[in-house]
């Protein structure tokens, strides 16, 4: 299986000094990547970065190019969402970190040509934030250089790919259990105003919002699903005094998150038309409140997501949710799933990690770990 995907690079993001996978900087996920690790290994920080860093990097770039008027309202709406659900210090983290969304030249070929580059000589083209300073970078083998020439097509391709990263950090998941009516209404009102001004909501602005604003439906008054054009909804009952109550148990809500991701990816398949290098879906604590009874349905939804060209990153302490003895699920795991161990704080991993255990978010393919060490590591995590 070979699915084109974005490549993610992250360093100096709070305690995450570097995102390293199997000894190499950066992460190019394929299929379904499941990350296990002890608390504090950086899994949720990565989820936060994938929620906010694309937005803030786009904001920096459009401001630098004088295009910010078009994007300001959407960016401020996402910030309001982040503030509402308890994201902390994202501006400070952004100004002290390095983040890149890199797209393979086979996807960005026409955009590279429009800027005067030969796609055959470029491996990746990246939209990069370096401590609050945005730039476009070209990766050519071991060489990396700042692009001296840009075009509207190249900028638009990179913005669209950055916007198409969907992340569900733990704060967002927990926040939608009991939202505040007035605060949610303010975000809903912002979305309505944006949609009136944006003629084509299938543009990068629409993608940016769909990837970060959940399709909440609260009574008959607030229907985010219609604005975002997402089929699946998170439904609430509106009680007296504007109190809000979920209509489904939390386990079903978790399944809804996977269904929302599936809707989002299918919509992008029509929107992108070859200019999106496979959307990236990140779900933190992905199997919380899901029972093994849901395993077949869950595997089916994830298979649909991957079949639409996306890659999925899940974090969990409970891989046994889908590790059940059923042929359909076994086939899915064998063909699509890679298990990674976040090594921070795991002493048995020391012989595998040459730079030391405090290098947070060093991910290692579990297939490379021998039986006894694997069992000990799983015991430490669980």
Q: What is the topological layout?
A:
Elements: E1 7-11, E2 20-21, E3 24-25, E4 32-37, H1 43-65, H2 68-84, H3 90-96, E5 98-104, H4 109-114, E6 124-130, E7 133-140, E8 143-146, H5 152-163, E9 165-168, H6 170-175, H7 181-197, H8 204-210, E10 216-218, E11 222-223, H9 224-228, E12 234-238, E13 244-246, H10 250-272, E14 280-283, H11 295-307, E15 311-315, H12 327-336, E16 337-342, E17 362-365, H13 371-381
Parallel strand pairs: 2-17, 4-15, 4-16, 9-14, 10-12, 14-15
Antiparallel strand pairs: 1-5, 2-3, 5-6, 6-7, 7-8, 10-11, 12-13, 16-17
Helix pairs in contact: 1-2, 2-7, 5-8, 10-11, 11-12
Task: Report on this structure.
There is one protein chain. The protein has 382 residues and is α/β, with parallel strands linked by helices. The protein is 41% helix and 20% strand. It contains 13 helices and 17 strands. An 8-stranded mixed beta sheet has the order 3-2-17-16-4-15-14-9, sandwiched between helices. Strands 1-5-6-7-8 form a 5-stranded antiparallel beta sheet. A 4-stranded mixed beta sheet has the order 11-10-12-13. The longest helix is centred in the N-terminal third of the chain and has 23 residues, at 43-65. It is globular and about 60 Å long. The model has no long low-confidence stretch (mean pLDDT 89).
Brief digest:
The protein has helices spanning 43-65, 68-84, 90-96, 109-114, 152-163, 170-175, 181-197, 204-210, 224-228, 250-272, 295-307, 327-336, 371-381, and strands at residues 7-11, 20-21, 24-25, 32-37, 98-104, 124-130, 133-140, 143-146, 165-168, 216-218, 222-223, 234-238, 244-246, 280-283, 311-315, 337-342, 362-365.
């Amino acid at each position: 299986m070979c699915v084109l995907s974005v490549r993610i690079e992250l360093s100096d993001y709070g305690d995450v000094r570097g995102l390293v996978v199997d000894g190499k900087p950066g992460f190019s996920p394929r299929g379904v990547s499941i990350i296990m690790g002890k608390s504090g290994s950086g899994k949720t920080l990565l989820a936060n970065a994938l929620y906010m860093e694309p937005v803030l990097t786009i904001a920096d770039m459009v401001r630098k190019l004088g295009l910010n008027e078009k994007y300001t309202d959407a960016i401020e709406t996402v910030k309001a969402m982040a503030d509402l659900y308890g994201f902390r210090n994202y501006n400070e983290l952004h100004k002290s970190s390095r983040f890149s969304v890199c797209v393979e030249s086979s996807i960005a070929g026409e955009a590279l040509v429009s800027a005067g580059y030969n796609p055959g000589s470029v491996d990746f083209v990246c939209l990069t934030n370096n401590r609050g300073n945005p730039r476009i970078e070209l990766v050519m083998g071991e060489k990396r250089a700042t692009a001296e020439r840009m075009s509207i097509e190249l900028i638009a391709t990179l913005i669209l790919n950055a916007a198409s990263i969907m992340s569900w950090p733990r704060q967002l998941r927990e926040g939608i259990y009991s939202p505040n009516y007035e605060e949610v209404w303010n975000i809903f009102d912002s979305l309505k105003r944006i949609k009136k001004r944006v003629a084509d909501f299938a543009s990068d602005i629409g993608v940016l919002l769909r990837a970060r604003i959940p399709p909440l439906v609260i009574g008959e008054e607030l229907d985010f699903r219609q604005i975002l054009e997402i089929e699946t909804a998170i439904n609430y009952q509106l009680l007296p005094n504007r109190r809000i109550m979920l209509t489904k148990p939390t386990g079903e809500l978790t399944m809804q998150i996977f269904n929302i991701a599936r809707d989002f990816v299918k919509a992008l398949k029509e929107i992108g038309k070859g200019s999106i290098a496979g959307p990236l879906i990140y779900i933190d604590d992905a199997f919380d409140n899901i029972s093994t009874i849901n395993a077949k349905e869950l595997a089916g939804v994830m298979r649909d997501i991957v079949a639409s060209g996306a890659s999925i990153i899940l974090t969990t302490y409970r891989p046994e949710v889908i590790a059940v003895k059923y042929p359909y699920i076994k086939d899915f795991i064998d063909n699509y799933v890679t298990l990674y161990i976040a090594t921070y704080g795991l002493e048995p991993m020391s012989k595998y990690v040459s730079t030391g255990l405090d290098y947070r978010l060093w991910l290692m393919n579990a297939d490379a770990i021998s039986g006894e060490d694997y069992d000990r590591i799983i015991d430490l995590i669980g």
